[in-house]
């Protein structure tokens, strides 16, 4: 399973964490998501073999939710 750390600006509470988790869990190939408003980071665990083309997918997932901005993705 692959792992990515997504930095997100705009998370301020536990409800924000729930919104981020729901948005990312809806993405194809995502197995599990954790999110922390305290660190501003979501950890995304992807199924093995998921195409490497994840560029832009987190931004797209959050595009319909106002107030959040992806500021970085690390593997």
Please tag this protein with its features:
24% helix, 75 residues, globular, alpha+beta, four-stranded antiparallel beta sheet
Strand order of the largest sheet: 2-3-1-4
Count the E strands: 4
- Count helical runs: 2
The quaternary organization reads as single chain
Question: Which structural class fits the helix and strand makeup?
Answer: alpha+beta
Shape: globular
Q: Tell me the series of helices and strands, N- to C-terminal.
A: EHEEHE
Poorly predicted regions: none
Structure overview:
This protein has about 80 residues and is α+β, with helices and mostly antiparallel strands. The chain is built from two helices and four strands, in the order E-H-E-E-H-E. The chain has helices at about 15-25, 55-60; strands spanning about 1-10, 30-35, 40-45, 70-75. The protein has a four-stranded antiparallel β-sheet with strand order 2-3-1-4. A hairpin with a 4-residue loop joins strand 2 (about 30-35) and strand 3. The longest helix has 12 residues, at about 15-25. It is globular, with a radius of gyration of 11 Å. The mean pLDDT is about 90.
